[in-house]
Amino acid sequence: MSFTAADAAGLLRTAIRDDNPVMFFEHKALYAQKGEVPDDPEFLLPFGKADIKKAGTDVTIVANLLYVGRVLEAAAELEKQGISAEVIDPRTLVPLDMDTIISSAKKTGRLVVVHEAHRTAGWGAEIAAEVTQQAFPYLDAAPIRLGAA
């Protein structure tokens, strides 16, 4: 799962070399997206390492695949209103880099999870639950999940 072509290439190479079964998901709406891809056949991205796509201080927004781009656009709009959003792409869901997400939520005090899946019982609900459980004293508001109806 990845937003950029480089991330997809690095994760796919890692998946191919992994001895375990791996499910690799792509969003077909991203196929037309252009981007640089390293030529190095040894360019690998580790599973379970999220990428902070934009640093911020007021709110942590976690999104994957197509919604990373949409969240980055929203973060630019928020910036115009004086709100600094940190945008995190988890890249992989299993393993999931909760350390990066929790650390960010502790720093910003707020969490929004954005995804296409249903709000209930999806990966976004799991992230919201984990952040609430592990970072509750640091939160200024309850986590918000944005997803399909």
Secondary structure layout:
Layout: H1 5-17, E1 51-54, E2 59-63, H2 66-80, E3 85-89, H3 98-108, E4 111-118, H4 123-135, E5 144-148
Parallel strand pairs: 2-3, 2-4, 4-5
Antiparallel strand pairs: 1-3
Helix pairs in contact: 3-4
Helix content: 25-40%
- Average pLDDT for all residues: 95
Work out the helix count.
Answer: 4
Computed over alpha carbons, the radius of gyration is 15 Å
N/C terminus separation: 22 Å
Q: Which strand order does the major sheet show?
A: 1-3-2-4-5
The count of strands amounts to 5
How many strands, what sense, and barrel or not for the largest sheet? 5 strands, mixed
Structural features, described:
The structure is a single chain. With 149 residues, this protein is α/β, with parallel strands linked by helices. The mean pLDDT is 95. 35% of the residues lie in helices and 18% in strands. It has a five-stranded mixed beta sheet with strand order 1-3-2-4-5, with helices on both faces. It is globular and about 45 Å long.
